[in-house]
Amino acid sequence: MTGAVDRRLLRAWLILGLLSLLAIPLVLLNGGNNWLNLFYYISGYSGGRLPVRQTVLAVAGLALLATLLALLAHNALNVEGMTLLFIAVIGALIAAVGHFVRTSQRLRSARVEIARLAATAERLRIARDLHDLLGHSLSLIALKSELAGRLLDQAPERAAREIRDIEQVARFTLQEVREAVSAYRRPALLDELRAARELLEVAGVRYRLEGERTLEAVAVPALEVVCSWIVREGVTNVIRHSRARECCIRFRQEGRLLWITISNDGLVRPAQGGEVAAGNGLRGLAERVLELGGQFEAGPVADGFRLEVALPLTGRRGEVSAAEHAGREGEQESAEKQTDVTGGRSDDTSPAG
């Protein structure tokens, strides 16, 4: 794009120079005032083809050239002054019109780009919401369906109850999808925590919640929405991608930051290629966190898998320094070691740090 602009400017300057050179012999050979009027058209051309600053230089050069030619052609000084005046006025008018046209074109292009970016952002929002909604609910439906199939012969009444739960989950998921597409859905953090406990219990994973009092600090709607998605996606990953026996969801407040840690003691199930790959859910979750200026980390640790997020309590963009994060990691490791000493874990369960 820059190269094309440079070529257009170079072509405009070349044409401007050729026109000026052609005007010189016409004025000198004919010696009439009418031939000086050629510089009006040349000035208008420069105003329409050149940027404003370059137009000023071009008009000044044309005025100087016209003055020299007028003196050489023995024209009166009053004609000289009028010529200079008209050269400047015409160049300024055409430059103003050209600037207005170019600005209008840029504004139209900017509006088209803004509309395109808005559509792209909305598609990404819907994709993230649908992934989070369906991933969580379909995991619950799959678990309950498997449980109902095992209980069908041994405990048909309980199997029927599980099937009714599946129907309720499916209906609720359909409603959530409709609300998400309509941009009306705002997940509630407490509801997500209750749903997480239910999902983990159905999957046979022990559930532990720490820092419940910290939830009172989540007062900003935008912050609550992101916290809810963190809980949902974190628990869904525990069910779908690990063999965990225990899952711990921990909230803590440090200064103006809210820290959320979801850890489990299970080994991450590798993808088909044999490597652990980041899913669309974690990528979408990281985008949500970064939009608020938070910090996102997810990956395997020595005793399982950990998802850790830091968010500003104001719900607005901020910065979390690496030094602060490192200090908090050290504090968390110390807390885990203290838990080991006090016997906070059973012998058959790895820590949910």
TrEMBL record:
Q: Mark out the compositionally biased spans (Basic and acidic residues).
A: 325-339
Classification via Pfam families: HisKA_3
Alphabetically, the GO molecular function entries are: phosphorelay sensor kinase activity; protein dimerization activity
What segment(s) does the record annotate as region Disordered? 318-353
Q: Where does the secretion signal sit in this chain?
A: none
Gene Ontology cellular-component terms listed = membrane
Q: Where do the Carrier domain residues begin and end?
A: 101-177
* Keyword Transmembrane helix appears in the UniProt entry: yes
- The portions of this protein that span the membrane are 12-32, 52-72, 84-101
For this UniProt record, the keywords arranged alphabetically read as follows: Kinase, Membrane, Transferase, Transmembrane, Transmembrane helix, Two-component regulatory system
- Asked if the keyword Transferase belongs to this entry, the reply reads yes
Family annotation (PANTHER family): NITRATE/NITRITE SENSOR PROTEIN NARX-RELATED, SENSOR HISTIDINE KINASE DESK
- Designated name of the protein: Carrier domain-containing protein
